[in-house]
Design brief:
Layout lengths: L1 H26 L8 E3 L8 H4 E6 L5 E8 L4 H11 L13 H8 L3 H13 L3 E5 L5 E7 H8 L3 E6 L5 E5 L4 E3 H4 L2 E5 L27 H7 L13 E5 L5 H5 L1 H5 L8 E6 L13 E8 L6
Length: 295
């Protein structure tokens, strides 16, 4: 009889402990600091130096977050990515399906369930568990998020832009067993990070000479001497930035014959409609050259 009681005790105690875990989550009791771990890198850098604290986020404000999970065996993942991207590797181009990726590098279903159970116990709504088992969406009120992630959400005003935003004052924390799975919690701040792209300094150089002579074009395209261009006329239609000197100066280089009236000018302006506020016009010039006879 005593042996049966001892056996019952060995079975009953673990069962009671297991039942107590979700109860503790559901009660929302504060976790001892020693049982929680911080998620590093999830606090805005220079927050106190670059912004002014203006208050607290309203407790009932709805906020959505995305929880990123660390891949299983990230070194193996790095190796796989390197091989599948290397044309010299036998694994080149042999990509994984989303299910294969999840099975190989994603968190297990049990680990995902552990995270979801914790979030729900804090009153959060769990959204999509993305393919790959490395990203979980959740949402809740500011008060629920503060409790779930052990931080404080405050309102701030950016010193440079004057824009208002909210952000977590301290790094989010989670129970140690869950924190070991998490690499990032995004959505605890909505500050717009603006970056200026510094213009690169360019050393000025001389531009190209511009254009080719008929002889150069003829040689470049291996045109035989039987094509002389005799009797043909070339028209250049110029709309903007026209300079007569640009046309005139081509004659010495190309040996084109200048016609008696090299340029003609047209100006068009459509009739003004009843609703038009202004009229527009355009000017074009047509300049002709008679190419020389070349053999």
């Amino acid at each position: 009889m005593k042996s049966r009681l001892k056996l019952f005790g060995l079975v009953a105690v673990p069962a009671l402990l297991a039942a107590a875990v979700p109860t503790a989550y559901a009660a929302g009791t504060a976790q001892p600091h020693s049982t929680r771990a911080a998620i590093t890198g999830d606090v805005l850098k220079g927050l106190n130096q670059n912004a002014t604290h203006t208050g607290n986020v309203a407790a009932g404000k709805r906020i959505s977050v995305a929880i990123s999970l660390a891949p299983r065996d990230d070194k193996a993942l790095d190796t796989f990515v390197a091989k599948v991207s290397n044309p010299r590797s036998s694994s080149y181009g042999h990509y994984l399906t989303k299910h294969q990726f999840a099975a190989r590098f994603g968190r297990t279903d049990a680990e995902i369930k552990q995270l979801k159970d914790y979030l729900r116990a804090q009153g959060l709504t769990v959204g999509t568990v993305h393919s790959g088992n490395l990203l979980v969406d959740a949402s809740g009120t500011a008060a629920q998020l503060e409790k779930a992630f052990g931080t404080k959400l405050s309102t701030w005003k950016d010193a440079a832009s004057g824009r208002s935003f909210y952000a977590n004052d301290t790094a989010p924390t989670l129970p140690t067993a869950i924190a070991s799975l998490v690499s990032d919690v995004s959505g605890l701040n909505n500050r717009a990070q603006l970056h200026h792209q510094a213009p690169s300094t360019v050393t000025p150089h001389n531009g190209p000479g511009g254009g080719y002579t008929p002889a150069q074009l003829k040689g470049g395209y291996n045109v035989s001497g039987t094509y002389t261009g005799s009797g043909q006329k070339i028209a250049l239609l110029e709309f903007d930035g026209f300079q007569q000197s640009n046309i005139t100066n081509t004659t010495p280089t190309t040996a084109w014959a200048r016609p008696p009236r090299p340029c003609r000018r047209w100006t068009a302006a459509p009739a003004r409609s009843a609703t038009a506020r202004s009229r527009w016009s355009w000017t074009s010039r047509s300049c002709t050259r008679s190419p020389p006879r070349r053999t």
